[in-house]
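Appendix B, example 12.
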Amino acid sequence: MYIRQPIVSVLGHVDHGKTTFLDRIRGTTVADREAGKITQHIGATEVPVDMLTEACSDLGCEVSFSLPGLLFIDTPGHHSFVTLRSRGGALADLAVLIVDIKEGFKPQTLESLDILRREETPFVVAANKLDRITGWNSQNRPFIRSFVEQSKSAQDRMTESLYELIGDLYDKGFSADRYDNVTDFSKNIGIVPMSAKTGEGIEDMLMTLIGLAQTFLRDQLMVEEGPAYGTILEVKEVLGLGTTFDTIIYEGVLKKGDDIVIGTRVEPLKTHVKSLLKPKPLDEIRDPRERFDEVDEVEAAAGIKLVTQDTEGVLAGAPLRVIGDRNEAEVLEEVMEESEPSIEISDDGIIIQADAIGSLEGLASELKDKDIPISKANIGDVSHKDIVEAATLPNPLYRVILAFNVDILPDAKEALMDMNAEVFTESVVYQLVEDYEEWKEEKMRELEEMRRVTIVHPGKFRVLDDKIFRLSKPAIVGVRVLAGRIESDQKILKNDGRVVGTIKSIRDGDQSLNKADQGEEVAVAISGVTIGRQIKAGEDLYIDIPEKHARKLRNIQLTFDENRVLEEVRNIKREEQPFWGM
């Protein structure tokens, strides 16, 4: 047994300073080199014990460190936190929640709090951007030294902003105070005022984290020296290396040449470690300033770039196990069980898809809190098959796919034109759920209106010459509604009295519609016809009205144009049935 370094995840709202905080620690400029200065990938940074000792001396304290250091994970968003799993729980031992001291708690910050509570992860709040406090003289020094040297007005403004954060935390069920006023971190959340830009308060944060770890996490940081347990952070192509796995090893030892098992979308993959590439201390997996060191082995906790013999199907968030002297079948079964998302499935419900096991579970948890059932949960991009499955669900309110951090494949986009299904894509879970809830409310209103209006109303439309998108199976054309309205599942009547085809769907851009009214131009999918045969470009067509409905329409207030179209339909029908509609 030995004590490993704690794994610390950094979370927070966009542009509140997550990567800049780590840049200040490691003395790099990763934030400046990334698009929009927002983290695009998951990364890991080791902070060795000698730097922690130096930080402690800056604070004027004498502490005997039993930990070898800290291992930070920098995530592209708060929900990447749930992608990182260790034996079914959160990979991180601790978390830093970065908050802009001037802007306060934003939606993503609040969602981060919900995640931390659900995962039962101890955390510290970093009240970042002290340098933005009016009158505050921010320098690269500990906060507790800086505070006493500020003007009274600057101190008051900082304290006022801090109390707002304390109030926000209280509203979410957390008791909090400035870190140097907290006597029991098991009952209160510590808030560390700091500036990642100037370096102020960084030492205070490191000491708070190491103190928490040494006080409360010692038992769980004691790990075996046996075969390694790890989690894949990211799968990426590297020039000269091929497919590589950025990996966190959180227990045991991983050696070059080890036989390992990694979770995939289907069956676990057994493969062989070809090389282990480790960034230098204070460097970073994603964007190292110097070349990696090739090492023969690493022990937990460590961030490592892994090159293996086989790579097929491995996903971010997948578990990794060294077989070692263990029974191979047992290791395969263990990895398979851990690769299965723990999600409650219903007979009827929406479909969810995500980029990794953990993020799929995170989305499912949010939906469970909203009492939204799930009929299927997939990992990977949205395919044609997924669209078909969604469109055939019995409840129209659940013919939806919520896609978190994944793409819609080209054939799936094409299928959306033909089928009555919706796909919502987002990289923020709360926004995804909110979009679905808004759509559901609107859909419920539409269904209620359809239940009230059961009579087929008159409708006349023209096939636009320059809007022929597909000739058949189904035909997809642009139309202009000349009078009345057209709706899905209505049959089409020609001037010669023939009934041809059925309107299967109506779309306006990316939006699926149940109906289109006079004057609107929309795209419609029509089954049972071929353009150029049964229907021609530029032709005027009618909605086929059942005779029983035509009689009822005499008692309904119609517009002038609707009455005109109804009369035209009557004349067409009476060519063969002289008393039709009487």
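The chain has 15 helices and 32 strands. The first strand starts at residue 2 and ends at 3.
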